[in-house]
Amino acid sequence: MTWLDVGNGWRNIYLLSCMVQMGALGCLFAARGWFSKSRTACFLTGVAATPLVQYLWTLLLAAVWPHAPRMVYIGALPAMGAVCALVMGVVRLRHLKEKLSQLLAYVKKLVRFDKPALAALCFALCLAMLIGPACVRFMSSMDSISGGDAGEYMALGQRFCEDRSLGNLLEKEETVGHFRGHSHFPSLELYMSYGLFHTDGEVGYPHDKAAFTGLGMLIFYAGAAYLALLLHFCREKKVCVLLGTVLFNLVPELYWSVAGAPRDIWRILALLWAALAFSGLKEDGNWKQYLGKLGWVFALCFTVMSTHVVCFVVLPFIVIAWVLWRFLHAGLTSYAGAWRALLRSVGLAFAGAIGTVAAFAGNIWCFVKWGEMSPWRLMTTFTDAPWYDMYMDIEYKLDETTTHLNFFEAKDSILMGYATPIGTWGWRLALIAMAAVIVCLIVKRVAMRRQAQEIRRNADGAVAVCLFDHGFGAKLASETGLCALLCLLTLAPMTGILDSPLYSFSGSFLKLPRYTLQWFMLCNVMICATLSALIDLWPGVIRRVKKLSDAAWVKTLPAWLCAALCLFAMVKGTNQTGYTNTFYRNSRNVMESQSILLDNSFRARYGLLMDVAEHVAEDEKILITRVGYQYPLRGKGYLLTSNPIVPLMNLPLEEVGAAISELNVAMLATEPDFWDNRYYPLSTLHEWLMQLPPEQIVETEEMRLYLIDPALVPYAQP
């Protein structure tokens, strides 16, 4: 068998395992009605939770039984999923006829489309046919770690599979030089480890196709969470949900995060899932239920915060939006008890804050020790060498992290997000919706107060019972208000209110759009939720105008508006003169790429490096310029910009050779463009390396190897 056969075999086992888990979790969530009134949304929420459950399972075993057999790591979850599905099936077997009739009714409802929804379905299907195959092809290829950071995360996951040491993953003060010592919690690495365990015992290329596929699948999990949000806030209105699927194409920078920054998709999935979970969470219940919810919110926030450091400035605003929503909901639906609801909500939010800080502890430790949030941004050897200023600009992102924005001056740049309109319209509609909800709240409170006073005046006897008919309007205002709060409050980090001398979030979020992807997705949901609310309110509006209320076409006008927006978004998102940063336009090359089709890009890129590395002696070192090389090198490289190695970049030219000899360096690996276009040519190390004999500098389109040990030259034939 070829390496591709071996890798695909384990990938298929991994996919089967994931499908069992997705089905079981989806059915469990749907049966319980967790987090939404829409059963379909509940099912998708369970599907989206699958990778988070896999990460938590690996974390649990890493903490309590790290050396458990591989089958425990990869076999327990699908086994529990299968048992869960079997139990749910057996329990409902006696109601089989009733359940089948319910299923039939559900299918009939699912396939029934009015004309506007049918038109929107055509555009959604067209988009799915355009970007779906590209997503599937990319997901099943090993291109999913084409970005540098992803290779480091993969190597860390590989190291855990080999040594089963959670402490090595949590290490912040890297003293060897293999890795950067991440301040973030290693959740993605543990999720990758779950995929890496799907091998025949040997961890590493070419056996790890399952882990690559797991990275690619994150976009589908995130898509499931996004679709669940649309179903929840649009109250299953097909035309609005389909509009949201078409608008998905207009989220800026999304393809590049899928292709090169898996941790961003990991973060987006977690944040969208948090928005879903809080949308279905209520603060009511007895003290036992309340204690359970405290633990649940702690676990939820810990899980979400552990996915990415950026969550520290997004997750708290999701929780704040939920607290304000529960206060708003209580004000809309009850005459008394709003302040009690607020107090109980704040208590749950406090548990969430503890979970957030627990997952953020690594960053806090780094700040206490060094005055910096991330150790990979810190060099223990500060220098005035010529390359250092460029290092600060490129690696530390000095321009982004020190740029403080005035939101109202930079509003168009922040909201437009590479010329896509969804940010601007999401923000506008969120403001309009919030204003309408506040007006509704005032009107409802005044009406309830008048009704209560009237009952008190006319009460005959010691006890009077007051029942309020809140109507559909209050529920609609409550749900739309939460969507608006989520959209407005998660914009906060981009406005500059959190900027400090230590870090500028506004500058980073503007100049690194992939950090704001979750906000653009929430803007899509806001647009669709507003149109859904308009469809619900429209009959009441046209009833006031007799001439309009008699016209049949007027009744479906908002639905046709959604269909027209689907057409507009489809044309603009695929046209050469349309929005320049759509998922479709950026992913077109995937279907044309022979390397992705044949899945040989990993070997083409790193084959020479791996072949030469096999002949490097155990006591010799391989210096690398990118952390992504650590996966093909099985974590044996030494990173030039890690604290133990960086002094090599500061030495006078005449001392470089002796230092290289003392370190016993056999080879330095880099990419031609990466080396030449960054700060390395300004160092004396570069000058020393260029003095090597020509046969010791081997270059291909992908790699450049400086063979300091001449004995490696025969093995470095491109």
Strand tally is 5
Using the alpha-carbon principal axes, give the shape: globular
Tally of helical segments: 34
- Give the overall pLDDT as a whole number: 87
Distance between the termini: 25 Å
Determine the strand fraction and express it as a percent band: under 5%
Uncertain segments are 463-469
List descriptors.
718 residues; 5-stranded mixed sheet; 3% strand
At a glance:
With 718 residues, the protein is mainly α.
Q: Explain this structure to me?
A:
This protein is mainly alpha-helical. The model is unreliable at 463-469 (pLDDT under 50). It contains 34 helices and 5 strands. Strand 4 (697-699) and strand 5 form a beta hairpin. It has a 5-stranded mixed beta sheet.
